[in-house]
Design brief:
Its EC number is 2.7.13.3. The protein has three domains: about 30-130, Beta-Lactamase (2-Layer Sandwich), CATH 3.30.450; about 135-210; about 220-370, Heat Shock Protein 90 (2-Layer Sandwich). Helix content is about 50%, strand content about 20%. The protein has helices at about 1-30, 50-55, 70-75, 80-95, 135-180, 185-210, 220-240, 260-280, 315, 335-345, and strands at about 35-40, 45-50, 100-105, 110-115, 125-130, 220, 240-245, 255, 285-295, 300-305, 350-355, 360-370. The longest helix is centred in the middle third of the chain and has 50 residues, at about 135-180. The relative contact order is 0.07.
Length: about 375
């Protein structure tokens, strides 16, 4: 009888140990997932948080276990930004019954948040957070490529059809100009010719945005490239009370590029920065454009940062779209052309901005050896 009891007890201990091993194994897997995980019980108390989620919240794990949502929100080390995001997720989950959310954090990363609750969770709430920035980048690149391909087809179909009548109109206006001068209406002829030339410039930009010429590459110093761009824009910057600075590493870095095309990209971004600074009309305001050079592995990052008006996050995803512009006189082709040029050089171009705090563009290009 005693031996049977001991055997039953041994089996129970072994079963418990086996269950505990399985539990520890699965908990270890959850701890090291690349997704952040929070688990609240039916009473709203946090019973589990993995390492990744603690890193995202920038809080120690042990200080969170046993907290309810209100206590989590009031944690002394939780940032104000994260408090707002958690409150938004709670509101949309509980009141709007949404189980999936997307948000952008203070560092510009995209996160997909999913919430699981109901009968299958026995009253518990499981919240998982995954970084989908790379997927968003791939999606945006594919979307941009589709737009540029469509733009190429449109430009091939209509560009010449528009240019031909403009050429004829310009020729006839020039023939009529002596008669207009006699009538004292030379100003009319000048305005017509100026507008025709402007229309031709827009068509030229339109064609370049759809199919830029192949890069004619030479090896150049990045610092000399930026110094040339600063010389070309320095006088215009001084006119609006803007200072320009160049920050670079001690070692000079070299890239193999089409100098004319890349300089066009740099000048376009600097011009946009000056426009953003010019929009700010505050007493004692000092405009600043800072150009930086930094090596990242086998690439060089060229940053152009301003302290201008900045942009809302909603506009950032549209900046490189053809014909999208926030300027009254803009064509919306400058940045889409820049995007294509940088991509043709095997590089990337990105932007980050915040309303009232300025904008920073980063152009990344492959490094090369000096000739």
């Amino acid at each position: 009888m005693l031996s049977e009891f001991q055997e039953t007890l041994l089996q129970s201990v072994q079963a418990f140990q086996s269950t505990q091993l399985v539990k520890n194994k699965y908990e270890n897997v959850l701890q090291h997932l690349d997704s952040g995980i929070l688990l609240f019980d039916s009473e709203g108390v946090l019973t589990f948080i993995n390492v990744q989620m603690a890193k995202l919240l920038e809080l120690p794990r042990q200080s969170l276990i046993g907290c309810n949502l209100l206590q989590l929100m009031r944690h002394p080390y939780l940032s104000r930004f994260k408090q707002k995001k958690i409150a938004r997720i709670y509101r949309e989950t509980i009141f709007h019954r949404r189980k999936y959310h997307e948000l952008i954090d203070e560092y510009g990363r995209h996160w997909l948040i999913s919430v699981v609750y109901g009968d299958q969770m026995e009253g518990d709430f499981l919240l998982s957070v995954k970084d989908v920035s790379d997927y968003k980048q791939i999606e945006q690149t594919a979307y941009q490529n589709d737009k540029l391909a469509m733009l190429g087809k449109i430009s091939a179909a209509i560009a010449h059809e528009i240019r031909n009548p403009l050429t004829a109109i310009r020729g006839f206006i020039q023939l009529l100009r002596p008669h207009l001068i006699q009538l004292g209406k030379d100003e009319y002829a000048r305005i017509i010719l100026m507008e025709i030339d402007r229309a031709n410039d827009i068509i030229h930009e339109f064609l370049n945005s759809s199919k830029p010429t192949a890069p004619q590459k030479t090896i150049v110093s990045v610092s000399s490239l930026l110094k040339d761009a600063m010389l070309l824009t320095e006088s215009e910057a001084l006119m609006i009370g803007c200072e320009m600075r160049l920050h670079q590493q001690t070692e000079d870095l070299y890239v193999s590029i089409d100098v004319k095309q890349i300089k066009q990209v740099i000048l376009n971004i600097i011009k946009n920065a000056m426009d953003a600074i010019h929009e700010v009309s505050v007493i004692h305001y000092a405009g600043m454009i800072e150009l930086g050079i930094k090596q990242e592995g086998d690439r060089v990052n060229i940053s152009i940062q301003d302290n201008g008006n900045g942009m809302d996050k909603t506009l950032l995803g549209k900046l490189f779209d053809p014909f999208f512009t926030t300027k009254e006189q803009g064509t919306g082709l400058g940045l889409s052309v820049s995007y294509r040029i940088i991509r043709n050089h095997g590089g990337t171009i990105s932007v980050d901005s915040m309303k009232g705090e300025g904008t920073v563009f980063v152009v990344s290009l492959p490094l090369t050896r000096q000739a």
